[in-house]
Design goal:
Elements lengths: L1 H15 L4 H11 L4 H26 L4 H22 L4 H24 L13 H18 L4 H10 L5 H25 L5 H24 L2 H22 L1
Length: 244
């Protein structure tokens, strides 16, 4: 069951460039009754290898520029570590309420972007690399705190503020997510907030299917992909809100 569940999450993770953890966390909390921190830590066991494979697949289809990925990854790593240390000391119910609020804010932001006039996609970043470091710091903090790798924060900002296409943004977000999810998993595991018996089969299932999600993402129209991403965030928020 966990293997099949991981395969479904891997497809979603590849499609949206988020590793699958964003939907695994509410499902583990709602269906399996896990506290918020344990759900986040267990989801990270699946997310880390999924992000690694998805990053490679995105790089094969759209080469990820190292000069863009490096400031995102370095700052994301440092601030994800700080965010994860903060997370393991917070009350589980307070953490869950904060996670729901985080998802709702992301949903509202992405929904607003659907109806706003967007500037044309540019081959060059609108802002120089130091600003990517700022984005990496903010995304890494949120990723470490909520165990989602920061990609859900970075992807919409990269498209709306920095002017990248959706698939390029998702590729760069994966470059940010890989080191930040790694250090977050280590922190959660050190504080015994990981269920390895569930996380490992989830990871195996995700690795079998994530390439399909990446392939689908590159075949879909840009607007449809953004709309599905927004709907996905709303679904996750609703699932966790019932648990609160």
């Amino acid at each position: 069951m966990y293997l099949a569940f991981g395969a479904a999450l891997g497809t979603v993770g590849g499609l949206f460039g988020i590793g699958g953890g964003l939907i695994a966390i509410p499902v583990l909390g709602v269906l399996f009754g896990m506290d918020q921190q344990i759900a986040q830590g267990t989801a990270l066991v699946m997310v880390v290898p999924n992000v690694m494979l998805a990053l490679w697949r995105y790089h094969q289809r759209n080469r990820i520029e190292l000069r863009h990925a490096l400031p995102l990854a370095l700052m994301g790593f440092c601030f994800a570590w700080l965010g994860s240390i903060w997370a393991v000391g917070i009350d589980a119910r307070v953490m869950r309420i904060g996670f729901v609020a985080f998802l709702i804010a992301l949903s509202v932001y992405n929904l607003a972007r659907m109806f706003m006039a967007n500037a044309p996609v540019s081959a060059q970043m609108r802002y120089p690399w130091p600003w990517l470091g700022v984005l990496g710091a903010a995304s890494g903090t949120m990723g470490g705190l909520f165990g989602v790798g920061g990609a859900v924060v970075a992807t919409p900002v990269l498209t709306s503020v920095f002017g990248t296409s959706q698939v390029v943004a998702q590729g760069l977000s994966l470059a940010l997510a890989l080191p930040s999810t790694g250090v977050t998993l280590v922190t959660y595991a050190f504080h015994h907030q990981v269920n390895w018996m569930i996380g490992l089969p989830l990871a195996a299932g995700g690795l079998l299917s994530i390439s399909w999600g990446v392939k689908i993402a590159h075949a879909m129209p840009e607007r449809l992909l953004r709309g599905l991403f927004c709907g996905f965030l709303v679904l996750c928020a609703v699932m966790l809100a019932f648990k609160v």
